[in-house]
Amino acid sequence: MIHMSEAARPILKTESDPAGDAGFLWDFWYPAIRSREIRPRQLSKAMLLEVPLVLGRTLDGKAFAMRDSCPHRGIPLSYGCFDGKTVECSYHGWRFDALSAQCVEIPSLTSQNKLKVERVFAGHYPCEERDGYVWVFMSEQGRASAEAVPASPALPVFGERYKITHLACELPSHVDQGIIGLMDPAHGPFVHQSWFWRSRRSIHEKQKQFKPIPSGFRMSAHSPSSNSAPYRLLKKVTGAPVTTTIDFLLPNMRLEEIHSGKLWFSSRATVTPVRRDLCRIDFVAAWNLFFLPVSLFRFFGEAFLRQDQQTMIQQAEGLKHNPHLMLIDDADRPAKWYFALKANLLDSRRTGAAMRHPMEGPVTLHWRS
Ligand code: FES
Ligand SMILES: [Fe+2]
Description:
The chain is of the alpha+beta class and 369 residues long. It has helices at residues 175-182, 188-191, 229-238, 294-319, 333-351; strands at 28-34, 44-48, 51-57, 63-67, 81-82, 86-88, 95-97, 103-105, 124-125, 127-130, 133-138, 163-171, 205-213, 216-222, 243-249, 253-260, 263-275, 278-287, 363-368.
């Protein structure tokens, strides 16, 4: 994980109203923590959408997530202890079943007391492990009925044997800025110039086909930019054309697939809101490109993320002063679609009507990058 240096953190404080709407999308899965970070008999902490969570793994291997707050007096449950089955609060010793968050013991009760222990619950969130992450389904009430919860998202892979690696990076911004940064084609030649990828001089006009898909949009299969060395290498190795498809899906996900002959590369980036002024990119990539070792990929991947992070830290400095911003055609059109998708989803949840898609059909966008 690329943490921000302590020097960068103080500029992240926002003036925003702590009680106001933070612009989060509830009722979706978000990656909370890496799978390897939770162990039996140990409690871990994470924050998603400004909700503090305590996570762990039961003795039979199941991941769980509770609100990190005891329903008795609110002390974080993460100060308590976990025997692999129940979480015991550090303050008065109430114990909660880790998987259901149902209270199983209140030590102060006597046979004279009428309180029904089993009616007491801690906040509790559906939790699934996939692709090396612990995903948590964040419903606003902290309690989603099991039927309302879809399966957590899976990274597409195209065979049994592949390499997989994970990268993460904190950004000092609202999730919306993180997401539009992720889908922004025009910053490449400026932020990501480097000898191994591309130079600023290689900027040229591009046109890309987009089409609507449920809850998002797709940059249709195309041959990726001829100005980057890795794609030229891939084509040389397979002798087959290289095609890339990129999807954006609400609430926060960019999926990219690259195929050339039998070789493939698949990646997913999610931008997860931690607080209204902090988000985190989780990037997972899998591939069967025999010539690409994990260490080499991580070296370049981390360099890329650090470039984006540096830019977002600088941007946060400017955003403190509430500037007016612009979204221009065509390079910022995907960002406009994102905002429209989000608004339409919230509308449809409010009215109960079907969600309108902001795109009427396929569109070709033109930009230089
Ligand atoms: S605060 Fe947790 S048991 Fe009292
Ligand atoms: Fe970038």
